[in-house]
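Proteins fold reproducibly. Look at a concrete instance:
___
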Amino acid sequence: MSVLTRDEAQTRAHILDVERYTIALDLTTGEETFDSRTAIRFTVRTAGDTFVELKPAALRSIALDGQPLDPALLDGNRYPLTGLTAGSHELHVDAAMRYSRTGEGMHRFTDPSDGETYLYTQLFLEDVQRVFAAFDQPDLKSVFALDVTAPEGWTVLGNGIAEHTGQGRWSIAPTPLISTYLVAVAAGPWHSVTTEHAGLPFGIHCRRSLAPYLDADADEILDVTRACYDRYHEKFDEPYPFDSYDQAFVPEFNAGAMENPGLVTFRDEYVFRSAVTDTERQTRAVTIAHEMAHMWFGDLVTLSWWDDIWLNESFAEYMGYQILTEVTLPRALTSVRAGEPPFPDTWAAFGVARKGWGYDADQRPSTHPVAPDPEAVPDTASALLNFDGISYAKGASALRQLVAWLGEKDFLAGINTHIARHRFANATLADFIDNLASATDRDVHTWAERWLRTTGIDTLTAEVAETSARGDADRSWTLAVGHDGSRPHRITVAAYDHDLTTGTGPAPLVPRDRFELDVPHTGEPVVRPGRRPALVVLNDGDLSYAKIRLDAASWNTALAGLSAIPAPLTRAVVWNAARDMVRDGDLDPTAYLAAARTHLPHESDLALVQGVLGFAAGQITARYLAPEDRPAALATLTALCRDLIRRTEDGSHPGLRLIAVRHFIDAATQPDTLQSWLTEGTVHGGPELDPELRWRILTRLAVLGATDEAAIAAEREQDPSATGREGAARCRAALPTPEAKAAAWAALFTDDTLSNYLFTATAQGFWQPGQDDLLSAYVARFYPEATALAARRGPAIAEAAGRHAFPAYAVDAQSLATGTRALDGPALIPALRRKLVDQLDDLRRALSVRTATAGRRPQPPTRPASP
């Protein structure tokens, strides 16, 4: 299949205007294909040749202006339209299209719980061609009118209000001008909760087997939706531009969500069927806010080409977190009183859960500018590679720094100018910067060049000194900031002292001084009155994007008193600094574990607890420590989690207890406690074991060799849901037997029937730290077999294979050399190549951390040679 190049898109946009698509989909024709009939009305400005894209199972007929064309001329995914004359034309295409099981195009899913089938489209970035014929590029916006025939008893959802006209036929209101990748359809026997807000119909939808769980959270989801909608209308001058707002929670979705105008699709894991923490509810709320921001920035105003995808994602990422700090809800969440912001520490969660994603991506060989040069995104295949931590987390961090430097008033003024000038049209980075510049006297263009067109991370290092003085009244201290990098930063510096009035126990830290500083600082070091503070923190509000290094005295204070720092956002900055130091080989991983062991039992912010434990378990114990050091590290984690479980015995912190129980399960090295919990159906003192916890325990028991196929089958019978099916696949692949590994490997790389979610679950179970001898033979096999798999099954499975089926725990020089050689393979498709480049760089870093750690530790004495 041919990918669309930027040059081809520009040429086609110069030739064509596309006025209207009239599309008829028949979803009653079988389980493998559906019928797609499309009429495209377009105008040719300049006579010439072009093409239309489609990926049919069978192209039955095609006609231009009533004249039949030869279907055999279809070349891959392109049908040539030659000799077009200037003026109006109409193209008619009749085709059978294949359903997808990989979350691309028209995905088909049958719920194992009840046998009901659900369909939904995911047309980003070039998958509209899997559903109907199109001039598939973002700057050929058009009106889309869809009619859908579905089985009786189904509900059809779309970008506009859908009307049931009888006998399974549905007519969806024509859209305003939108891009092809934003067209959306969802069909099935949905369970729906509907309401009205601001004169518009609002709805939330899920499959029937999840109905009780959606109903339990419907008030919260709709409260968040309404609150975000109202807050965006306070910020944006342009009203919401579509006729309805539906949110469908759909199965086996590859992303977190997709911003289809009027019909946002979410992964249905956001319909919680097991206990979750407030942090996980916050993540769902942020996703709701993120996708709603796209209604203006992405849907109403759309990029012209994919080099500007960061404009969509960075803006929505920033707004999603910012809006959640500003809204209030009429009903309280677990730990928040009604009328208060429901998620007061949202930016702390961003700092610990998302920012590291950007930092990691920006230090790999695959790094790219937030706003890459157009030449760096020559086609759609290369564009797909830029959906990463840079386009999301780094871009959002850059915008947060821009707001700190520009001021929110001027920032929003520029945004509203941008929306007004380009509504229902397309815009570029240059347009965006020009519109921001129109609202301020600051040099936004230079800021953009330094922040958006460069790669890598700056490092800011605090250099603190105390001046000599005759008495306390004359004392002062100085701060200089070392700046390794090229970007300007406006940061906040905070100084903390120990509160010595609290009596026994560790003295808490209290803020003494707080001031803004521009870096690079061109003058003398900043002089502040008083004794040298116990702790000086750069970037205290986390308003910039940079690695932070504390001075030695502050770092000692932080290690001893991290949990005593009053603000969660400051604690997030310090924890991120520790994380960066471990990754850079500047802090022994065991010192990080010791800090977690010391401070997490006193931590109140759930996102911080989850983030720190996630890094400790996912990177330190699994990859950064040598195998001989892993048992002691797991013992530290289990002891820490046991402390947290004991702390929460009174029921006052259910979210913290749930996090501790999950990580206790994952770190367990002996099966006895887990087996007793599973047998009794409860953790001693709570919580009761819900499906998520039962499958988590069973997976860990499988890794430890303490369960078998019969127990997995019995659990699967007890939980016949889709997540139960995935849990069973994960457990079977985790069993430490040659037979289990061989069966899982065949399912992954030979049998191409696994859906995207079952593939991921099987891959997650297969590779396990501690099963090295059993898995070593598969390391070299991964590369050629993943290459062939990606070529057969396409980018979605390629991404899943590169992320989840990669031998991440084989941390040795031979594995790195094998993978590095594989990068030379000409058959690697871009999606898999990018994942392998990233994974191999992470493997290289893990080896470097192990080397640095070994170099710092005292070596055993050498026995003198015998005489």
